[in-house]
Amino acid sequence: MRALSRRTLLGWLGFAAWPMRAARGAPREVSVSIQNFAFAPARTQIPAGARVIWTNEDDAPHLVVASKGAFRSSALDTGDTFQFVFREPGSYDYFCALHPHMQGVVTVTAEAGRGAETGDH
Prior knowledge:
Elements: H1 2-25, E1 29-35, E2 38-40, E3 43-47, E4 50-56, E5 64-66, E6 81-86, E7 90-96, E8 103-109, E9 117-119
Parallel strand pairs: 1-4, 3-8
Antiparallel strand pairs: 1-2, 4-6, 5-7, 6-9, 7-8
């Protein structure tokens, strides 16, 4: 009976740890290239709490701006980066303020998180 209790306990502990293992397996950082006057990839899906890093690989400057104001980069010259940690689930449309035809979307799925924070390039 004692061995069964240990097995049961170990099974429950393994089951309880499953969400933590699953969360660790999700991407915590995603890169988006700015090249040929486009965002690549243009659509990104991440869990809440993950960071997106945009890198300008064009010869022209670009600005990464959320349509609803959640984030805004400064002007990114060639090689510059901008990063943003998405803490709230939802869909975040963004564009280049200098070239509005450049558009992208970050979809954030539910996961524990508290708000958003930004980082400079």
